[in-house]
Write a structure and sequence with these properties.
With about 800 residues, the protein is an alpha/beta fold. Helix content is about 40%, strand content about 20%. β23, α24 and β24 form a beta-alpha-beta unit. The protein is elongated, with a radius of gyration of 36 Å. It binds adenosine-5'-diphosphate, aspartic acid and magnesium ion. The site of magnesium ion (MG) has 3 residues, from loops. One of its GO terms (biological process) is homoserine biosynthetic process. Bifunctional aspartate kinase and homoserine dehydrogenase that catalyzes the first and the third steps toward the synthesis of lysine, methionine and threonine from aspartate. This is Bifunctional aspartokinase/homoserine dehydrogenase. Keywords: Amino-acid biosynthesis, ATP-binding, Kinase, Lysine biosynthesis, Metal-binding, Methionine biosynthesis, Multifunctional enzyme, NAD, NADP, Nucleotide-binding, Oxidoreductase, Sodium, Threonine biosynthesis, Transferase.
């Protein structure tokens, strides 16, 4: 005999009911099948809404109508597909059940809350109707059916809403039922009966447990639980995108996974199966071909992989008790345990300090008021006499558990977990390792649970290095960067690297990307995004999403954003920037950034601040780190000015050359910023600071290219027009230089001692800067190691492609 259980997700609509009927029929061809059904998806939630709210007749009738409509829709569609289905009979039964429900609601309308026995009846209606529908589908396909009534045969111990089952007693009763060998057996899940034959339920998600019990009672050789996922996965796929399927796990591991929150199985399901040595397979109704997950004895399953999963339990509170009583008497814990046993309160996790001065335990939030009340009552005199301090409670917590075979004996797993949590700035309030051999649990704030789950899952189960990107600025560089990341996707995948762009923003809007959004279509989604961007929103978002290897990339030229970097580091983010504003801000801020990166162990990368993609900053840092000293420096640091001065040599007017440079994307948004010399001065300041000079931007002497009144131009167009006024004077300067065999170049200089200047210089043909034009940069470093011939770095120092590729290579340095 085989036991099949189908969850609500497998019974969500007519097609699914019929697919389940097919699976039952197919199995019945080989051996007798007993089937346990849950209520169709969502139905139990509607029914729970009825009992959880204050009794308000109109609202309740609304919920009842919604549930009834789902059933009618299901059977109407079944009839459409399977015309011989017993539609009218089934419809009558649905009507009768819902009328009964409405009558109950009316009968209790003067109550504040429904009594628990009535609550149990209300929320179990879905299962009852699932069985009726399935029975009528199978009868109309000419099968013989035996229905097992769970109220009469599954004997419960406990209360109306969360009962356990006396399996031996249930087995006795079921063995008395006369079941024809050819019949398909059906039983409603979730339901049992107490000693008085009153209906009770087995707790939310309890039909998995019903299935296990029936499998034991019928001596089934296998229990198959059919759901909406391929089996037990390394974490909940609704929370984590890169889970993998576990082919087989031991009973113990499955118990641990479900106990600590893996909803795919009700926590009580596995124990009876283990006791009766019945293997269990979790399978997917929407992917019948998949092998599923086998849950069996440890020796029978593949234990190549120690680690099995990461789970979370939310809505947890932690109580901490302290005081000298704990040291003086050994009976405090037993007294609490006894009382909790009587009150049906479950302690999920417990830790005690080795000094015995205090201990903490975690329970579900819903029990917290009751617990506080009974503890205060239990220890009334001890609290009064100050033998115990007042009981401390922390709410809004979650327990995150890592499950694996003998995991607590592996030395490196806890360290990886803590490292992952620490890197994303998640504090652990309590930890439990060793009480169960197969799990390690940590208590954290609920607000941190999702990112912690993802970080730990990626660290332990995902064989890829993930970099999470929060992109600010989608001008030329930002956009090109996205293109380059897309282009390199497969290449990086082969190197086990995955770049996840989590957000894209400009100064007005922000787009959140998830697995459903294809990065290729980001522009469309960005246009449709209604999410506003501002600093407050950004900071909140970063706080909630500090995944491992998270990076803010600043591709703007925004001053205000550049002042946020320290804030970003403190939230656990690396920063990569093509924006020069931070490094050219006050020396104090410059130093504060460096100090914070050291303190927070984060990277600050800005290779593109000077010379776009050219490896300048890194080269300079390498020289300084290895003891070299800069003697002096000369360089053409502006791609736009290199281009413009190159064009002047070809007898092109300054205004035309500038316009061309702008059209090619070589200039800042307003080319006035390039020609003012300030941009070159900023780059020079960055280089000078990099080699250790403590200077400010004002200390750099700038010989202006433009007359003073040019700075006042409001926009680019006005500026380009005005530029024509000085075209002739430049024609003259170029000619004068040419007459003595020289060219004009806009040069940044760092002299020995740190004096910095930027100015137009006439350059000789034997100078390395003589041939540098067309947007190229050239930097000549005379250092202790590089002299008398200087170290020369030369190449394109502007343009979206090279700048984006510089940012991209900084990005890869985060993990390489
Ligand atoms: P059913 O209605 O079939 O009982 P449930 O919703 O109760 O289905 O359980 C299946 C769900 O359990 C999955 O859709 C998945 O989101 C969730 N789940 C949580 N943890 C895990 C896990 N480790 N492996 C698989 N599924 C999980
Ligand atoms: N229908 C019940 C619930 O949703 C039982 C189950 O699905 O297992 O909790
Ligand atoms: Mg379930």
């Amino acid at each position: 005999m085989k036991l099949l259980k189908f969850g609500g997700t497998s019974l969500a609509n007519a097609e699914k009911f019929l697919c389940v009927a097919d699976i039952i029929e197919k199995n019945q061809n080989n051996e007798q099948v007993a089937t346990v059904l849950s209520a169709p998806a969502k139905i139990t939630n509607y029914l729970v809404n009825i009992i959880e709210n204050d009794i308000n007749i109109n609202k309740i009738l609304e919920q009842i109508d919604l549930a009834e409509k789902i059933f009618i829709e299901i059977i109407r569609n079944i009839k459409k597909i399977q015309s011989y289905f017993l539609y009218e009979e089934t419809k009558q039964i649905i009507k009768i059940e819902f009328n009964k429900l409405k009558k109950i609601v009316h009968d209790f309308k003067s109550f504040k809350k429904y009594p628990e026995n009535i609550q149990a009846i209300i929320i179990s209606r879905g299962e009852i109707l699932s069985i009726w529908i399935m029975k009528n589908i199978l009868i109309s396909r000419n099968h013989q059916i035996t229905i097992i009534d769970p109220v009469e045969n599954i004997v419960s111990i406990g209360n109306f809403l969360n009962s356990a089952v006396d399996i031996n007693e249930s087995k006795k009763r079921i063995s008395k039922i006369n079941i024809n060998k050819n019949n398909i057996i059906l039983m409603a899940g979730f339901i049992a009966g107490n000693k008085k034959n009153e209906l009770v339920i087995l707790g939310r998600n309890g039909s998995d447990y019903s299935a296990a019990i029936l499998a034991c009672c019928l001596n089934a050789n296998l229990c198959e639980i059919w759901t909406d996922v391929d089996g037990v996965l390394t974490s909940d796929p609704k929370k984590i995108s890169n889970t993998s399927l576990l082919k087989s796990i031991s009973y113990e591991e499955a118990m641990e996974l479900s106990y600590f929150g893996a909803k795919v199985l009700h926590p009580k399901t596995i124990e009876p199966l283990k006791n009766f040595n019945i293997p269990c397979i979790i399978k997917n109704t929407s992917n019948i071909q998949s092998q599923g997950t086998l849950i069996c004895k440890n020796n029978d399953c593949n234990q190549n992989n120690i680690l099995k999963g990461v789970t979370n339990l939310d809505n947890i509170v932690m109580f901490t008790m302290s005081g000298c009583l704990l040291k003086q008497k050994n009976d405090v814990l037993p007294r609490i345990f006894n009382l909790f046993e009587k009150e049906n309160i479950n302690i999920i996790l417990i830790t005690q300090s080795s000094s015995k001065n205090n201990f903490s335990f975690c329970t579900l939030e819903k029990d917290s008021q009751k617990i506080l009340f009974i503890l205060n009552k239990l220890f009334k005199s001890e609290l009064k006499e100050k033998l115990l301090n007042s009981i401390h409670i922390i709410s809004n917590l979650s327990i995150l558990s890592i499950i694996g075979f003998n995991i607590s004996q592996k030395y490196d797993i806890a360290s990886k977990i803590f490292c992952a949590l620490g890197k994303s700035k998640v504090n652990v309030l309590a930890i439990s390792q060793g009480s169960s051999k197969h799990s390690i649990s940590v208590v954290i704030k609920k607000e941190n649970v999702l990112k912690s789950l993802q970080n730990i899952h990626n660290t332990l189960f995902y064989n890829k290095k993930i970099i999470n990107v929060f992109l600010l600025g989608i001008g030329g560089v930002g956009r090109t960067l996205i293109k380059q990341i897309l282009k390199q996707k497969n290449f990086l995948e082969n190197k086990n690297i995955e770049i996840k762009i989590r957000t894209i923003s400009n100064s007005k809007k922000i787009l959140f990307l998830n697995d459903l959004i294809d990065l290729k279509n980001w522009e469309k989604h960005f246009q449709e995004s209604k999410k506003q961007f501002n600093l407050e929103i950004l900071n909140k978002l970063l706080k909630e999403n500090s995944f491992l290897n998270s990076v803010v990339i600043d591709c703007t030229s925004d001053e205000i954003l550049s002042q946020q970097y320290i804030n970003f580091f403190s939230k656990g983010f690396h920063v990569i920037t093509s924006n020069k504003k931070a490094n050219t801000s006050s020396l104090k801020y410059y130093n504060d950034i460096r100090n914070t990166t050291l303190k927070e162990n984060k990277k600050f990368l800005y290779e593109t601040n000077v010379g776009a993609g050219l490896p300048i900053i890194q080269t300079l840092q390498n020289l300084v780190n290895t003891g070299d000293n800069l003697i002096c420096f000369k360089g053409i640091l502006s791609g736009s000015l290199s281009f413009i001065f190159g064009k002047l040599e070809e007898n092109i007017l300054l205004s035309d050359a500038t316009k061309k440079a702008k059209d090619l994307g070589f200039t800042e948004p307003n080319p006035c910023d390039d020609l003012s010399g300030i941009d070159v001065a900023r780059k020079l300041l960055i280089l000078a600071r990099e080699v250790g000079y403590k200077i400010e931007l004002e200390d750099i002497e700038i010989e202006p290219i433009l007359p003073k009144n040019f700075q006042k131009c409001k926009n680019t167009k006005e500026f380009l027009n005005k530029l024509k006024e000085i075209d002739i004077s430049f024609v003259e300067r170029v000619r004068k230089a040419r007459n003595i065999g020289k060219v004009l170049r806009f040069v940044g200089t760092i002299e020995k001692g740190g004096k910095c200047s930027v100015k137009i210089e006439e350059i000789n043909s034997d100078n390395p800067l003589y041939k540098v034009k067309n947007g190229e940069n050239a930097l000549t470093f005379y250092t202790n190691y590089y002299q008398p011939i200087p170290l020369v770095l030369r190449g394109y120092g502007a343009g979206n492609d090279v700048t984006a590729s510089g940012v991209f290579s900084d990005l890869l340095r985060i993990i390489l």
